[in-house]
Design goal:
Blueprint (H helix, E strand, L loop, with lengths): L2 H5 L4 H7 L16 E4 L5 E3 L1 H15 L7 E5 L5 H11 L2 E4 L20 E4 L6 H10 L3 E5 L10 E4 L5 H19 L8 H5 L2
Parallel strand pairs: 3-4, 3-5, 5-6, 6-7
Antiparallel strand pairs: 1-2
Helix pairs in contact: 2-6, 3-6, 4-6
Length: 197
């Protein structure tokens, strides 16, 4: 076992199996720093050490907030099961589906909410939430694939933000770390709880 494998949050095999490192055929200038190589089929591959490092940073950052202060948004359907399970275990607020602008900024809306930090599964489809967060000045953690822009994000977590297994693994690790850091009881959820339909 190499030094790297010992310090990673999950075994390398778990990351590889979930395909968390597999990007798209496009890359943005910003995401270039996180790319390890390009495959023969043209897909960009993310650097697993950097993926792992940023997941740890995201967990640490979220752990500074109480569950009621956190909002997680996922317009992408592949993230719904994972964020719903995360919410069930931790008590954070989630928004699965299209986020209508103004929830964080317009106090006259029925569904208005005040939050202190936002996490989005994809900065592009979730751009309404990112824009709201920047208007009210709260930090934003964004999961970014190789083709994402990083506008308005305070912390970028490079990963395959389109795959069910990849998003499931990300939120499983995040839930485990968050619950451990906040002392929210024993973490008994399985990866399947976050990925299987």
């Amino acid at each position: 076992m190499t030094e790297t494998q010992k310090t990673m949050m999950v075994p390398v095999e778990s990351y590889l199996k979930a395909g968390i490192h597999i990007g798209t055929k496009f890359k943005s200038k910003y995401m270039d720093n996180f790319i390890y190589k390009i495959r023969q089929d043209g897909l960009y591959i993310l650097n697993l050490e950097k993926v792992d490092e940023r997941i740890a940073m995201a967990a640490k950052m979220l752990s500074q907030y109480e569950p009621e202060d956190i909002l997680i948004v996922s317009r992408r359907e592949n993230g719904w099961k994972a964020i719903k399970m995360f919410a069930k275990l931790t008590g954070v607020t989630i928004f699965a589906g299209r986020y209508p602008p103004g929830i964080l900024t317009n106090i006259s809306l029925k569904n208005f909410m005040e939050k202190k930090i936002l996490l989005v599964t994809d900065a592009w489809p979730d751009k309404n939430a990112v824009e709201d967060a920047s208007k009210v000045g709260i930090p934003v953690i964004g999961l970014c694939d190789t083709n994402n822009q990083s506008n308005g994000l305070d912390l970028v977590v490079p990963c395959n933000n389109k795959g069910k297994k990849s998003l499931g693994l990300f939120f499983w690790i995040l839930a485990r770390e968050y619950m451990k850091n906040k002392g929210l009881g024993e973490f008994t959820a399985t990866l399947e709880d976050f990925t299987d339909e």
